[in-house]
Amino acid sequence: MALHFERAEFASRLARLTDKMKEEKLDALLLFAQESMYWLTGYDTFGYCFFQTLVVKADGTMALITRSADLRQARHTSVVEDIHVWVDRVNADPTMDLKNLLVEMDLLGSRIGVEYDTHGMTGRVSRLLDSQLTSFGQIIDASYLVSNLRLIKSPTEIAYVERAALLADDALDAAIRLTKPGADEADILAAMQAAIFTGGGDYPANEFIIGSGADALLCRYKAGRRKLDASDQLTLEWAGVYAHYHAAMMRTIVIGEPTHRHRELYNACLETIQAIETVLKPGHTFGDVFDMHARIMDERGLARHRLNACGYSLGARFSPSWMEHQMFHAGNPQPIEPSMSLFVHMIIADSDTGTAMTLGQTYLTTGDAPRALSRHPLDFIGV
After folding, report:
1. CA-CA distance, 17 to 235, in Å (whole number)?
2. Dihedral through CA 277, CA 281, CA 284, CA 290, nearest 10?
3. Measured between alpha carbons, how far is 95 from 137 in angstroms, rounded to an integer?
4. What distance in Å separates the CA atoms of residue 218 and residue 349, rounded to the nearest whole number?
5. pLDDT-derived band at 312, boundaries 50, 70, 90
């Protein structure tokens, strides 16, 4: 079987989950998030673009309902033994099959949690599910139950995050080697992704971000490539990925002579990320991290040019995003605890002068100061 963890670790995760379910007085939980299924059972697929759900009872019983295309996938990559297939057909409503399965599992009239806030749950599925289950039992939004459990990484998970971070560093090395006047963004992007695949890594859960010139101010992927000018700026955001675990990085590389504004914005990024390192540890919250970011940026007159979040938790994620639910934004009470993998990014987009600057890396939290997972320093990069 294609399992990335020992069965004992899966059993430990199931025990943590059922303990939390009992605490929340849930008789069952319907998992629609692919990363939840992967974390709990090892199930690895992109079949969540169709209807599927993993039913978990408070006694630890599990049953998966999915399509025929994923039957063997589930058998090969997961510890799930009870697998049910709903049949593709005209006007199919797999939520009826799910309700019948819940009856077989003696869950009629039960208190059932549902992962609503996930890319594996479309609006249509949500409406069909609610229609089937409204009178079936008490339905509770439990979108973040497993997500919160996944925040703390096991030793094996940490090893995968560290391997992902090594691949992210390799990708940056590949990018720097190619970045120069006349270089094609396509070649740089291809070299970065090749470094990760060659190192045994995986596809990322979302596209790498690459943009030069005016596009360097963007922080999302867009189609289209250009060649670098003699004086230019290149923003890159990417992640090393291993066994679906991500370690993200972000840099803006200046081609040619840096402007005064480039240097000024870089200094702001560096000062802020170094200050954040002093609060990225137990005793502080995700909100504290953002407050530090906002305070320093705003004191430098950069309030209009910064974002309203400065990072997030990372882990094993599936398309369309490698971002976890837990983000560094104002007022987030989530405590910082040891063994979290957290991406901190400084993004400044000065549209007035057309100047971009970014700086970001993934950290592993400890009992005290965080540990940066990149071998690269936070130095200004110019070519």
Report:
1. 40
2. 30
3. 14
4. 8
5. very high
